[in-house]
Amino acid sequence: MTPPPPTTTYTSIPLPTGDVISRSIHNLTSAISRHRPWSELVFSGDFSLPESFSSLLLRSKTNFNYFFVNYTIVVATCAAFALITASPVALIVVGVIIVLWLLFHFFREDPLILWSFQVGDRTVVLFLVLASVWAVWFTSSAVNLAVGVGVGLLLGITHSVLRNSDELFLEEDDAVNGGLIGPNLQ
Questions:
Q1: What pLDDT shows up at residue 155?
Q2: How many CB atoms lie within 10 A of CB 14?
Q3: What is the spatial distance between Cα 45 and Cα 67, in angstroms, rounded to a whole number?
Q4: In the chain, which ranges are continuous DSSP H helix?
Q5: 164 three-state secondary structure
Q6: What range does the record give for the signal peptide (predicted)?
Q7: CB-side neighbour CA atoms (13 Å) of 77
Q8: d(CA 159, CA 154)
Q9: Does the structure show a pLDDT above 90 at 150?
Q10: How many CB atoms lie within 10 A of CB 89?
Q11: Cα dist from 51 to 45, 117, 157, 158, whole Å
Q12: Rounded to whole angstroms, how far apart are CA atoms 32 and 38?
């Protein structure tokens, strides 16, 4: 009889919740700081209709990868304006939920530890989904939020289709991550 294979135990270093929040805020500000200059988004470049459908797809994909952070800010701003027309309370409540998503899901690198217990990722996502549904239901802002996000997406899509992307230059890593070029297989 052969002995059972040895088991490997992985451990994580428990971090206080304050460290997770401060690192998440740092990651958020780092992501926002990668936006392209607004003058480059609006004033520079040639705006024209694409010549073919394949040109439209390539142009929109290039612009989307290049201006991703800017488009995200535009969508968030449109959603905020739509929510503020519903009520300022809706904007505050939904804003808090968005901040919770950013801090505890998207920009968190370490396990979340509350009262010396590690909280699993599924539990965090479940809590955030329930909080999001409650916030939209409590503020009765689903329609306003959908209109704001829709307008922001329409602005971003229109810009990405109409702006000529011939003079945009991506870093090689950004182009590979965005799917514009394949990785070098040697």
A1: 93
A2: 13
A3: 13
A4: 17-32, 38-42, 53-66, 68-86, 88-101, 121-139, 142-162, 172-177
A5: coil
A6: none
A7: 8
A8: 8
A9: yes
A10: 12
A11: 17, 58, 17, 15
A12: 13
Tokens linked to 127:
């809590």
User: What pLDDT, on the 0 to 100 scale, is given for residue 10?
Assistant: 45
Model pTM score: 0.62
| Three-state secondary structure of 32-44 | HCCCCCHHHHHCC
Using only C-alpha atoms, what is the Rg of the chain? Answer: 21
Strands 117-119 and 112-114: antiparallel
For CA atoms 98, 128, 30, 175, give the dihedral sign: negative
CA 62/CA 41 separation, integer angstroms: 13
127's CB contacts (< 8 A; 6+ apart) are: none
Identify residue 5 by its one-letter amino acid code. P
The two tokens of residue 171 are 């870093």
What separation in angstroms does the CA of 162 have from each of 23, 26, 131, 136, 167? 38, 34, 38, 34, 14
Structural contact between residues 118 and 14, judged by C-beta atoms closer than 8 angstroms: yes
Structure tokens at 1: 């009889």
Answer yes or no: is pLDDT of 158 > 70: yes
Q: Is 87 helix (H, G, I), strand (E, B) or coil?
A: coil
Structure tokens at 88: 């300022």
Q: Single out the residue of 34, 23, 32 nearest to residue 173, CA to CA.
A: 34
